[in-house]
Design a protein that fits this description.
The structure is a single chain. This protein is mainly α. It folds into two domains: 34 residues, no CATH class; 44 residues, no CATH class. It has five helices and no strands. Helix 1 packs across helix 2 and helix 3 packs across helix 5. The longest helix is centred in the C-terminal third of the chain and has 20 residues. The protein is elongated, with a radius of gyration of 18 Å.
């Protein structure tokens, strides 16, 4: 299964000490060493990854339609979410050109 291009991270954490602190907080109270390692690595990867640019673009598109007087009423929530990601995909395509 292919993954949709997400544009990379929009707001990745960059401070190594903050990244470590966040990952260390995630493993508080876990005694199993293998589980601690797995959770630490996952928490660190999530902090470094941040929100995807695709998600950020979709959120901005959704905000625009939700604040337009007729826009919010013309879509169901499901349609609005799908539309927002379609907009994000077009923005990523335009950005790549």
């Amino acid at each position: 299964m292919s993954q949709k291009y997400n544009g990379g991270p929009a707001f990745p954490m960059q401070d190594p000490q903050a990244i470590h602190a966040l990952a260390a907080a995630a493993i508080q109270g876990i005694d199993d060493a293998a589980e601690r390692d797995r959770i630490y690595v996952a928490a660190r990867a999530q902090a470094v990854g941040g929100m995807s640019l695709r998600d950020y673009f979709a959120a901005m598109a959704m905000q625009a339609v939700a604040t337009t007087p007729t826009g919010a009423e013309s879509f169901t929530f499901d349609e609005r979410a799908k539309w927002a990601y379609q907009q994000a995909d077009f923005m990523l395509k335009a950005r790549a050109e």
